[in-house]
Amino acid sequence: MIHDRGRIKWVSLMIPQHKKLIANLYHSESDVTLPTIDEQKMEEMNEVISLALQEERDVVLKYFSNRRHFEVTGTIERVDPLTKQIRIVVGSEIKIITFANLIDVYFA
Hints:
It comes from Paenibacillus gansuensis. The chain is α+β, with helices and mostly antiparallel strands. It contains three helices and five strands. Helices cover 32% and strands 36% of the residues. The termini are far apart.
């Protein structure tokens, strides 16, 4: 049986610039774009956020940052309409997420 080492055997033949370009290519392949959110979804998210503030319930916020999707679970501390930011308490730290980066909000 032939044991092929794949990319490993070609690495020694590459110059450092090629290695860097290939690493950037692999990293950029996993990039995602910010999805567009329609009015109905925005209304649903606003309802969940306002209920979570009133009842102090835990929520899961899906948000977009640095070409990636992230999830955070915690209690919403404050919603600031002027700066368009949500402050959420996650464990012992406070995370600030902007409205523009929100993808989804639902109860935990």
